[in-house]
Every structure is written in structure tokens, then in C-alpha cells.
């Protein structure tokens, strides 16, 4: 335990480590990682533990400790500009710049499947977390991110609000719920004249702690001075007020930051494949407001590894979770009696049919829940196809039991 922790911090970290020891991996188990959960929930031990356990199951399901080993998506690598610049030079903070105004929002949604988008963002989050952990280990103090969200180039159109308050909000919510207290401060710079409209739509959807960390600057304001209050000049690219250039003398440091200026070509838009077929080839279910739909499976036991393969599509936000038990009697159990192997999270509706493959503990009873809990009035159409595969992506026999609705 780091001695600079307060008594309250030490007690919180020791409590969380003890209670979550069965899920903590060696890589994630650091004092500061656990402290962030305590801080994010105002040192309410039980509430912090609940959300930590949910995250640790999320980490296991997506194998976040090893997510950097997965192949990066070429489209997102080129057209979705996220950049980890390096230490700010002040207060053990890390500088991250996102040129969000240059993102082809509609093109991303039409080109990339949900799981690919989420995986790419999680890869970046884990890269940031690894650097934060390294800085904490080297300097003996807690680290976090100074985040510059640059909206230069953002153009308003009729679809912008629905995209920002829909898919992007849900994806950011997933990031915040799994990485508490990672942002020290977010500086939104080059905010357009319609920023007030965007903020009015987005702000109520953000937690208060998050809203309080956001500062908004128009393009005509002296935001570069504000950046340099938080960073030393030689740690900030010239374009954002510092003196840093890459080895080519580029003031935007394109070697670190990919800043696209073009729309995604329509030739790169997603098209159905045998792995992720047309919507019409999936099973359709209509879920009433506040309800859910559960699909039940009996999977034979096997000596080898088994994964669940899910195609999914929804017109708007839905929740999904995967439950498992090796007890055959679980076919009639309530979901709360089973192991939530993939915890319940919200996912955004996107124009593409998604495909996600993830391991399950083994044979037995598996239940997949799709939910419409967020809606008060509107029903939701969800489309899905679920199967099981072995380590070589070959089909595994299974029995699908008649689904139930609630």
C-alpha cells in the first residue's frame, strides 16, 4: 500500500481488494486502480464494490488484459482520431487529444460493426490505463487524463443530434462506467456556435461528476492559454499551444495523432456477410417498454473451450447480458440465480449487423437477455442469431429452448 494514501483511502482499497479478489487479475490489481472506484462512488464501499465487480466481469468477458493483442481495425485506425500524446509535464497527468470535429460520424456508423467499434475504443482505454499505471508506479502519485476534445471542423446537420445523443452517448457511457475517475479535466476547444444546442442535449445525460470536469471554449477564446495552465509547452503539440513537433516538424504531430480530413468512402461501408448476415435473416422479437426477452440454450459439456457467437441488431439502444450455470436445473431458474458471465450493459443501435464472439465457462445452461429497460413507452425491435463454436470457430451442437418474455 502506498503510504501517501489517507486512512479512508487505505480502508477502501483494502475492502475492495479483499471482496473482489476472486475476479482481480494481477495486471489490474493496483492500489490506484481500486482507489478510483472508491473515489467514483464517494467512498461508499458497497456501491463501489458492486460496480467494480460488474467491471471485472466485463474485463473478463472482453479479455481486456490482453485486448492490445487483437488486430486493430483499419477503418477506425485511419478515420477515428484518438491520440495519446504523453505526460502533460504537470501533476503526473497524461495528455490525450481527440480531434472529434474531424470524425465522419455517419460514415463510422455505416462502416463499422458495434463490437469492432467498442473493441477499438476499449483498446485505447486500456492503452491509456497502462500508461497511467506506469506513471503512478514511477512517480508514486495518482494519475489521470487531461483530455482535449477538439471540435474544429464540426458541421451541423439534421442527423448530428441523434447520433451524439444516441450511439456515441451510449458508447461513452460504457467507457465512463468501466473507467471511473480516468479524466481529471476535459477541455472542449474550438466549440462551434451551435455548441449550446449540443450541450443542452448531451449535458442532462452525463453524470454530475462528469459534467463538472468539462470546460468549453469557442474558437475565438484564448483556450491555448488554458491548455498551458495544465501542461508544459514542450509536452503539447504546437497546434494546441505548445512547442512540441514530431520528427518531421509537423505542428499537429501526425505521427502521434491521426487527423483525417476526408469522409469515409462509401466503398468501405459495411455489407452483409455469412458471418454477419442481412437483418432479414435474423430472428426478430418485439420487446415492450421496460421488458426483456430471454433466449435459453443447453450446451453439451466439452473438454475444449466453447464460445458464444452472437449476431445482433436493434433500431435503438438495448441492453444485453449472458448468463451461465453448469446445473441443468438452471433452465428454469430466474436470471438472478445464475452467473452473469457477461454483465448487463446498454448497447447503441447501429446500422450494421454486429457479430461478437466471446468465451463462456463451458457447457451447461446459457441464457442471453435482450432488454428494453430504458424505454418508458416505446417498444423495441431486436434481431438476433445465436450459436456456439469451438476454439477453431467450428460449430458446437446445442439445444435452443423456447424463449421467454417478461
TrEMBL record:
Entries under InterPro entries matching the protein: CRAL-TRIO_dom (IPR001251), CRAL-TRIO_dom_sf (IPR036865), CRAL-TRIO_domain (IPR053302), CRAL/TRIO_N_dom_sf (IPR036273), Ctg-1-like_C (IPR058960)
Span of domain CRAL-TRIO: 72-248
CDD domains with a match to the protein in the record: SEC14
Top-rank taxon: Eukaryota
Name of the protein in question: CRAL-TRIO domain-containing protein
Species for this entry: Steinernema glaseri
Organism lineage string: Eukaryota, Metazoa, Ecdysozoa, Nematoda, Chromadorea
Amino acid at each position: 500500500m502506498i503510504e501517501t494514501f489517507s486512512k479512508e483511502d487505505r480502508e477502501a482499497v483494502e475492502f475492495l481488494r479483499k471482496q473482489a479478489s476472486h475476479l482481480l487479475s494481477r495486471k489490474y490489481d493496483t492500489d490506484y486502480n481500486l482507489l478510483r472506484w472508491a473515489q467514483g462512488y464517494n467512498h461508499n464501499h458497497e456501491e463501489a464494490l458492486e460496480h467494480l465487480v460488474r467491471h471485472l466481469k466485463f474485463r473478463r468477458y472482453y479479455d481486456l488484459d490482453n485486448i492490445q493483442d487483437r488486430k486493430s481495425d483499419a477503418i477506425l485506425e485511419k478515420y477515428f482520431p484518438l491520440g495519446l500524446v504523453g505526460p502533460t509535464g504537470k501533476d503526473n497527468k497524461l495528455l490525450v487529444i481527440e480531434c472529434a470535429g474531424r470524425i465522419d460520424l455517419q460514415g463510422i456508423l455505416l462502416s463499422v460493426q458495434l463490437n469492432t467499434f467498442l473493441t477499438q475504443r476499449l483498446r485505447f482505454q486500456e492503452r491509456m490505463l497502462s500508461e497511467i499505471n506506469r506513471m503512478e508506479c514511477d512517480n508514486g502519485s495518482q494519475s489521470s487524463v487531461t483530455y482535449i476534445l477538439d471540435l474544429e471542423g464540426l458541421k451541423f446537420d439534421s442527423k448530428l443530434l441523434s447520433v451524439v445523443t444516441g450511439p456515441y452517448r451510449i458508447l461513452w457511457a460504457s467507457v465512463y462506467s468501466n473507467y471511473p475517475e480516468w479524466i481529471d479535466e476535459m477541455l472542449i476547444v474550438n466549440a462551434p456556435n451551435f455548441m449550446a444546442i449540443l450541450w443542452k442535449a448531451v449535458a442532462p445525460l452525463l453524470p454530475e461528476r462528469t459534467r463538472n470536469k468539462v470546460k468549453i471554449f469557442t474558437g475565438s477564446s484564448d483556450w491555448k492559454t488554458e491548455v498551458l495552465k495544465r501542461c508544459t509547452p514542450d509536452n503539447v503539440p504546437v497546434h494546441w499551444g505548445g512547442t512540441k513537433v514530431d520528427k518531421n516538424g509537423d505542428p499537429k504531430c501526425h505521427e502521434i495523432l491521426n487527423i483525417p480530413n476526408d469522409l469515409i468512402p462509401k466503398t468501405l461501408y459495411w455489407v452483409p456477410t455469412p458471418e454477419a448476415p442481412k437483418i432479414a435473416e435474423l430472428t426478430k422479437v418485439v420487446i415492450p417498454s421496460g421488458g426483456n426477452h430471454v433466449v435459453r440454450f443447453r450446451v453439451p459439456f466439452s473438454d475444449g473451450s466453447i464460445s458464444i457467437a452472437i449476431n445482433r441488431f436493434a433500431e435503438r439502444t438495448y441492453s444485453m447480458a449472458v448468463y451461465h450455470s453448469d446445473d441443468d436445473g438452471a433452465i428454469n431458474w430466474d436470471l438472478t440465480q445464475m452467473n452473469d458471465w457477461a454483465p448487463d450493459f446498454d448497447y447503441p443501435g447501429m446500422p450494421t449487423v454486429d457479430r461478437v464472439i466471446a468465451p463462456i465457462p463451458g457447457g451447461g445452461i446459457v441464457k442471453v437477455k435482450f432488454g428494453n429497460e430504458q424505454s418508458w413507452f416505446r417498444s423495441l425491435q431486436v434481431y438476433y442469431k445465436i450459436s456456439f463454436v469451438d476454439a477453431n470457430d467450428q460449430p458446437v451442437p446445442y439445444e435452443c429452448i423456447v424463449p421467454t418474455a417478461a
